[in-house]
Give the backbone structure.
Amino acid sequence: MIEQKNGVFPAVCPLDCPDTCGLLLHKEDGKIIKVTGNPEHPVTQGAICNKVRNMTERIYHNERILYPLKRTGAKGSGEFTRISWEGAVQEITGRYRELIAEYGSESILPYSFYGNMGILSVDGMDRRFFNALGASRLDQAICNSAGSSGWKYTMGFKGGTSPEDTEFADLIIVWGGNLMSTNMHQVVYAEKARKRGAKVVVIDVHKNRTAQWADWFIPLYPGTDTALALGVMHVLFRDG
């Protein structure tokens, strides 16, 4: 396969975000010089966030970490020294061996989530590695376990709603989410639903941008979501 060093190439954002925006990568001499949205994408329609719009600055930033670094000062001091890849592997494996010998392999907890959803960095070798190591098992779903379980119990399968379908909703409940900042394309469909007469309700512990935009904001004390959910369920069953 011959690399094309110049032109505009379609791509998809790999960051762990609900939107998965269609991108256009502009290249000159093999270097990405600009990232724009793909207007032909049926959902995102060319709109992208500033994080991705400025991706080239991150990729080619002169302070980007390209090699293993070992902390040589106190935590927080920012003192690091570059070491070799071999040295980094020895540091990590040495520490793992110490922990396994003293406490057992389950003393190692591989706490992680997606971040970047590229082919090499999601649901791949890390799961296999830690399984072979005998490390503690972790449901690697930091933010969506309750929603996924609730959806599966209610709908009977593991999935979600097609964004395009939400335009025809009568009621949109945003529970613990900030769509205006983190799922901007869903806001477009919610606005279309509002024009059809739908109401948008936001339930959260603080009045974020989405709560300010909603038709009804319901504030909660942290940790009281379950009480509200059970109360709503009670009224739904009681009143049919």
